[in-house]
Amino acid sequence: MSRRPLLAASAAVAGSLGLPRPTAAADGRTTTSGTRALHLAPAHKQAAALHNGRTSSRALLDQLLEHHDRINPALNAVVTLDTDAARAAADEADRYLARTGRTLGPLHGLPMTVKDALETAGMRTTCGSTDLADHVPDTDADVVALLRAAGAVIVGKTNVPTMCQDIQTSNPIFGKTNNPFDAERTAGGSSGGPAAAVATGLTSLEVGSDLAGSLRLPAAYCGVYALRTSRGASPVVPTRGHIPRPPGWLTSSDMLTLGPIARTPADLGLLLDVIAAPSPADAPAWSIRLPEPARHRLGQYRVGLWADDDFCRVDGDMRTLMGRVAAAVRNAGASIDDSARPVDFAASNDLLLRLMYATSSASAADDAFAGEVAAADALADDDPSALYLKSRTMRHRNWARADEDRQKLRAAWADYFTTHDILITPATPTAAVPDQTSVALPQRHITVDGEKRSFFDQTSWLNLAVPAGLPSIVVPAGATADGLPLSVQIIGPYLSERTLVHVAKLLASLLPTAPEAPALTA
């Protein structure tokens, strides 16, 4: 797609969101001034400027806060700001650098936001729940502590659906987060606030959480990169302090992972280096050293391609994009296998649901859970509610059987990756769908090439990686005719995060240009 239709679409969206209309700069970028202010630059460029003294943390923070004042009211991505604490932290970062000539770490002085599902000491953390409306933690989530130890300046919190239990982002405390490209479309969920904030320059980096696409779906809909990290017996990124589970719990879902959201692959790598770490309890003896990519050029990779499937058909725009991706990879000299399938799509999805429903019941109230057990026992196996209730209340023996199925699924993927280095799939069946916050769940649906489909088909492709605990990266590529971003997904073997980031870098110059959110240049 040419830049001119994207520019026209971006101008229309900017007008609908009350933002300045962008113009074409001489270098072909969509911008209002022809230059990119530092606070809107990628994180690695901001960090370099901070570390070499070209700017101060306080100056960068104040520029970012001015951007918040103009952009966030129409977007509602950042729902809590603590400007006093952020300015104090920025000033301290500047003093430390001036005094010692050293940085605390790779994020020294870098302002960033944190998803409102991650407990943040001294800062209101609600997970969009009225029950937690006044919750101010005393302790950081482990991943937030890693950010601070690396020098990050935490500015505020980004919006989520109530208890992260929706794939669009709205809650009764803060309301709805708008998609940065079209206010009538969803930003996705549950990391809708983080993805929208990154897309619009309200932060250069975010940490999102992903159990069933919650990190990657919003990234795809908002046109940014996101990396779901590996999950084995322990996660690559520590998850303690993520809500849900309730505040104070030491455990989390056995499929939940945390991962970076950014506007460039390089920034994903920057944040991955910070947050890929053992839990504090394991740190004295454990370290996490993710393998470096074994290949240097795209043409050296053995690429699997899963472009469409009867289980979850994609629309015409996505089919066209997958064709262009295949052509680009072939032209780069890589071998492509578009026939082998690592797993059965339907069986994998069924296992995901059973395990997800089972783990979701851990924090249910005793009386409510007892009621669910009674209701599940009274249901026939073929009842429409049976999968949900019988999975939530399954006996430990049944869970052990499901976990055995999970290990067999992991083995099937591992076997596939003995002959393939990566697998490229669609990220979603379509671009961002209309927001349905005000629609009751049974009436929600998506439309794919004119056909009504299940609302939850949005995450089916993303969920392929989940039950096996595999890393997966969402890569923005191209757009629909009306300027909505499209994305592909790349799945890799267990612990291949660095390979996925490397492949995303290699693909960035070959794939169709993804649009930038109008607010990023406003």
TrEMBL record:
GO terms for cellular component: endomembrane system. Keywords: Signal. The keyword Signal applies. Transmembrane segments: none annotated. Residues 1-25 form the signal peptide. It comes from the Bacteria. This is Amidase. It comes from Streptomyces ruber.
